[in-house]
């Protein structure tokens, strides 16, 4: 099994060199983010790709929830 980022971003967009999500937890707050790298002239497209994937976080399949447990 592969992550959504691997399947939806890296596999389907040859101009994306890397893409990764991160999560940092503190005692009273946290930080979630995503970074994506590619060629400079592709920056606007990379932003669109990243935002599209972040918007998909509003729903999960039962399989994804089970895998995350």
UniProtKB/TrEMBL annotation:
Function: Substrate recognition and binding subunit of the essential mitochondrial processing protease (MPP), which cleaves the mitochondrial sequence off newly imported precursors proteins.
Entry GO MF terms: metal ion binding
GO CC annotation: mitochondrion
Membership in a protein family: Belongs to the peptidase M16 family.
Annotated TM spans: none
Family annotation (InterPro entries): Metalloenz_LuxS/M16, MPP/UQCRC_Complex, Peptidase_M16_C
Protein name per UniProt: Mitochondrial-processing peptidase subunit alpha, variant 2
Domain Peptidase M16 C-terminal: 1-69
Source organism of this protein record: Perkinsus olseni (Perkinsus atlanticus)
PANTHER family attached to this UniProt entry: METALLOPROTEASE, MITOCHONDRIAL-PROCESSING PEPTIDASE SUBUNIT ALPHA
Pfam families linked: Peptidase_M16_C
